[in-house]
DNA sequence: CAGTATCCTGATAGATACTG
DNA sequence: CAGTATCTATCAGGATACTG
């Protein structure tokens, strides 16, 4: 495996033992991957994201967006209109996550496939969409 | 009326909206990435992992290992000797994470570099190395 | 429309002690 | 050596209401 040049990686007052830990800490979480995933498709307004990400809480979406912005992964553009309009888009840094995300997606699909073999997925149950209550 | 634009991904009773969410859920967490990272280097005994991952709690390591095993990412080999010896290694599925992890690592390094430019990292503080205790 | 401020709760991490 | 069992502490996530 690749040797880590320096043993510790610091960001925002936290210390990480390897770059992966840092990466994961920055874009993991209950919703961040999904947000980034949606933004890979192009910039989106707050409300669009809210609608696209079914089940996410209003406050939580705002929080996660602020986190991602603080990490420099997304950029926030405010249009001082009335009513207000705010757009979010990936920064170049955020775009840099694309290959990693692509691989994660492929891995997720592979994982799904593996498990479908032994234990078929219950896709017959549309109520699952409501699971996050 | 819930639109179901993307299929669901289910595992272990939880539903995910996209494969990435699933992937992250499976190998994110405070320590899982680090564990996997260490195992990419080859199989390790419990005690080795404990030593390699400075700061991890005894119980937590055991838990995370069990989670990863349940997900099929790592395999556990028990040698019924005295004292007991247990080895952990990545399964083929776990190995499949390597490209994703490689990209995450690169991204983490890039991130680190970006932030070093504007806001120099406080590497002057050796106590940081001891932070996890 | 987008964003805060409270309050609450469940999942996770950690400290510690005990077991084969 | 490796693994449980408790107990506690913490914190991210969520429900809800209010604001420009």
What does this structure look like?
- The structure is a homodimer of 133-residue chains.
- Chain A is α+β, with helices and mostly antiparallel strands.
- Chain A has six helices and five strands, in the order E-E-H-H-E-H-H-E-E-H-H.
- In chain A, the strands form two sheets. In chain A, strands 3-5-4 form a three-stranded antiparallel beta sheet. Chain A has a two-stranded antiparallel ribbon with strand order 1-2.
- Chain A is globular, with a radius of gyration of 18 Å.
- Chain A starts with 8 loop residues before the first strand and ends in a 15-residue tail after the last helix.
- The model of chain A is unreliable at 1-6 and 119-133 (pLDDT under 50).
- At the A-B interface, strand 1, helix 1, helix 2 and helix 6 of A face strand 1, helix 1, helix 2 and helix 6 of B.
- The structure holds a DNA duplex (20 and 20 nucleotides).
Any key phrases for this structure?
homodimer; 133 residues; alpha+beta; two-stranded antiparallel ribbon; 6 helices; disordered N terminus; DNA-binding; DNA-binding (chains A, B); WH-like_DNA-bd_sf (chains A, B); WH_DNA-bd_sf (chains A, B); transcription (chains A, B)
